Amino acid sequence: MATIKTxxxxxxxxxxxxxxxxxxIVPRANAQSxxxxxxxxxxxxTITGAVGTVYSIEYVTTLAExxxxxxxxxxxxxxxxxxxxxxxxxxxxxTAGKFYRAVEFVAPTNMVFIPPGTFRMGSPTNEPDxxxxxxxxxxxxxxxxxxMSIYEVTQAEYxxxxxNNPSGSQINDQHPIERVSxxxxxxxCAALTERERAAGRIPLNSVYRxxxxxxxxxxxxxxxxxxxxxxxxxxxxxxxxxAWHWHNSGLTTHSVxxxxxxxxxxxxxxxxxxxxxxxxxxxxxxxGTVVDPQGLATGSDRVLRGxxxxxxxxxxxxxxxxxxxxxxxxxxxxxxxxxxxxxx
Length: 344
Hints:
Blueprint: E1 3-5, H1 13-18, E2 24-27, E3 37-40, E4 44-48, E5 54-60, E6 73-79, E7 85-88, E8 99-104, E9 111-114, E10 117-121, E11 138-142, E12 146-149, H2 155-162, H3 182-198, E13 207-209, H4 213-221, E14 274-280, E15 289-291, E16 301-305, E17 321-325, E18 333-334, E19 338-340
């Protein structure tokens, strides 16, 4: 269990309390207990806990709000890299007076934590079977960690929350939901957020949503730079161990999690159903070096990733991408969710 340490660095206490200086008031008690308060000259926390544990970094803006656990707003998810660890608030409002705490976060069922990092998005021009709209390769930094569902959303999960199952193939309720539009997927994420907040399982500000296209490819690659997360796989000889596609699916979806996972423990990122992403469609990646990129904010077309049961193996590559109108439904279109500290 984490402890949070503070130190006094010469700020005027009253100014700190009122948020009139670039000082922050932080808890210095056990992260899961009511906070006692200390004062320091930087906006942040010193956290002592188990290395590798994920904490929810949360804040309130008034002293009175610290008295109730229902008031704390999620700022980010942090996987503790060392102990003790000095965490600094890098958000745009970090200079305002805030009260911070770090709470050990219980992993949501069937989700895995994806740490922040930098990777090369898109495919090189010499990658076999690439499409022109997979470039130019772009150095992308994902600045904050997030949770991603291990599996595509199943028909059982969708029906439990939304009360209906639009899928064309209803052989088994552990098959991925399909024939859902981007609009349907966004509505599902909003309903899931509302349910989990009401149950007190996620902090305020945190949301279930679709991954951005960059988040999706980052999670799919899992530090790899090859055509697939399992390697370049010339001739697609090993792909059948990881993906349901045109040549091995029997022309239907399959229960999630039947193939091998990628290095981060995520299943069916290659094949089974295409997965909706948050982004609007762009004909190319931005190029250069970017942080937390998003696609176009205008237009009705949205990004789909991962390939599907009725598509050729080339469509299952890590860099492969296609598009659909936000209202399109098709029996090879599904999605998975992420849990993040905010909307992108």
